[in-house]
Amino acid sequence: MQDLGEILFRLFVIFTSAKIMGELFERLKQPALIGEILAGVILGPHLFNLVHNQEIYNVLAEIGVMVLLFTVGLQIKVEEIMKVGGRSTLVAVLGVIIPFFLGYGYSVLSGENTIGAMFMGAAMVATSVGITARIFADFGLVESEIARIILAAAVIDDILGMLVLAIVTGAGQGTLSYIHLGIITLEAVGFILFLILVGTRLTRRYIARVANLKVRNAVFALSLIFLLGLSAVASLLQLAAIIGAFMAGLVMSEFNFQFQLSQRAESLYDFLVPFFFVIMGSKIDLGVLADSSIWLTAGLITVLAIAGKLIGCGVAVIKSGLKTAFQVGVGMVPRGEVGLIIASVGLGSGAINSELYAVVIFMVVATTVLPLPLLRRLLTLQ
């Protein structure tokens, strides 16, 4: 066990490196998370060996990703999801089904075991709401029809992605069977639906009483209680803890603006989330990249990941014209944080090995970076 001074020094190095690399990539007009992952690669055991695979760092990373998914959930209003148009729903559903089966099918054909193949498919489903939304904001097009379709679909995509992750994680806990898979699916669906349909109503009923408590920032404290409690419940149900964190944010999203929950969570986010991406980066074994077959696999998976969104999401709105279909398809390609989270869960559970983990990281980074110039160009053709 490291002494406190050494642990604090390493945390200082991790956080400082994450912020420096994040700033560098922001200046290059790329997501900061890519810089944070690269910081982890540099600090990890395969280069400078300043970050070890020890429980304290893994726990800190897990808390960081819980905060990340909690803040994502805070941005999603349940009512808006319930009212969303059929086009966005179809875009989301096809944008999940086709990439999942492309990733799963390729992995099975390549000799990967069923659970590993399911994790590969799961890593290919979710679209990054934050990255896509930022592009629309840069062009002042957040209120455009294309933006509404893509952002609503991306939100539904995230929820479906969490459901897929819950099912895959649960299936990875034991011997895979149709009965076991059915039970996990029912648990995941039941957990999510109960919180959406019942949890939000109970919170709405008692929120005024909580707000009147003498405890400082009582409503935000309740949000953190939900964050920890629902994460624990999700773990007890053999689902990923981040499912509970995401649902905690979703349950409290109705009160986000009124009680400034996102603003209050910003400091937690800024401090804890970078640890997750750095720790993730530190687990990338650079040695596996010396194998040319890994690069080939990563390239093919990236092509399939892009094609899955272009085809699935584009077909869903093809009636609106080829240009609209292409814009929606490209807008749904960036994977961002959720794909990285799924890769981390898969590696931590032993469902995927270091080679497959490196392939997923490559795919996520490539699908996050490559579509951005094309999407910016397409939006200027509005």
**Terminal Cα separation, in Å?**
58 Å
Total DSSP helices:
18
Helix content: over 70%
What Rg, in angstroms, do the CA atoms define? 20 Å
**Helix-strand string:** HHHHHHHHHHHHHHHHHH
CATH architecture: Up-down Bundle
- What structural class is derived from the secondary structure elements? mainly alpha
CATH class: Mainly Alpha
Instruction: List how many beta strands DSSP finds.
Output: 0
- Can you tell me the CATH topology? Na+/H+ antiporter like fold
Report mean pLDDT, rounded to a whole number. 83
Layout of secondary structure:
Elements: H1 4-27, H2 32-43, H3 55-74, H4 78-83, H5 86-109, H6 114-123, H7 129-138, H8 145-171, H9 178-211, H10 218-236, H11 241-252, H12 256-259, H13 261-282, H14 292-316, H15 322-331, H16 336-349, H17 354-369, H18 371-379
Tell me about this structure.
Helix 1 (about 5-25) crosses helix 13 and helix 8 crosses helix 9. This protein is mostly helical and about 375 residues long. It contains 18 helices and no strands. The protein has a single domain, classed as Na+/H+ antiporter like fold, CATH 1.20.1530.20. It is globular and about 60 Å long. It has helices at about 5-25, 30-45, 55-75, 80-85, 85-110, 115-125, 130-140, 145-170, 180-210, 220-235, 240-250, 255-260, 260-280, 290-315, 320-330, 335-350, 355-370, 370-380. The mean pLDDT is about 85. Helices cover about 80% and strands about 0% of the residues.
